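Hi L.,

As promised, Helix-turn-helix:
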Amino acid sequence: MQLFSQRIKEIRQKLCFSQADVSEQTGISLGTLRGLENGKVMPRLDTLKFLSNLYKHNLIEVYATCLVGNYQALLTTYNRAEAKIAYQNYAELGDEITELIALREHTSSEFFATQITQRMALLSAIILTERDNDRRGALRVLTNALKQTTPTFSTRTYEQFYYSDLEKRLLMTIGLLSRFTEHKPATLKLFQFVHQTSSASILHIKACYHLALYYIESKQFQLARDCINEGKEHAQEQNQMYSLGYFGLAEAKLAYQHNEPDWQKQAEQINLIRNYFNLPFVAIETDALPLFY
């Protein structure tokens, strides 16, 4: 906090603003500004956004950098892990876990340390599932990660709690893996919960995809079609074009299961989409579609 307080004071002084000037232009009280600059007030997200506009600095990133020794390295590691997940290079995620362990040791923020630990849990669960075929082990890892912030968490009581986007992703992954265990009935409710509570993020798109697959398997074809259409619309709005490859596979699977006359032609077109997005080969008639972590 002291380092961040010093930084924002230096930025204000370089801009030749008094605290009164800042208060007048942002509506933030003088007491709050003084507290921020002497390290006695924890910055709120909306406060940092207001000040960022006036100070011409991304103060959210400045604050994160003060809390995490090498914030840019953390973002780089996160992005590299996401790229490996996107291209199904699951066995290589161990490198990112090793890097995250080192980065966690250099953070003074309990929040970031917990977030890093939960991110490591997600990567570990993916490795256990995809490389080791140990879904039960993966479920234990994910459940323990959620219990870090919600000690009474369980798949029976999860709807009672508030979750960050990362925690919702852990929750969705529990739903994915529950399809292959005796907890399969929990899958639909988990997907619906994530779908309903993440309306403006990539997570919502992923929930649409997995809900569509669930409805295809249970022969609720109109619901599946609705989820596919909704997911494609959100993917285009958010410029998540990679997601369209997954929905293309889901459309072909739906056409086959629904016994639509042109499903073979659709499957051929999907192979072109699959190659473009570097998705794994899928025999629409027999294979399960890939998980969208």
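The mean pLDDT is 86.

Thanks again for sending the construct details.

K.
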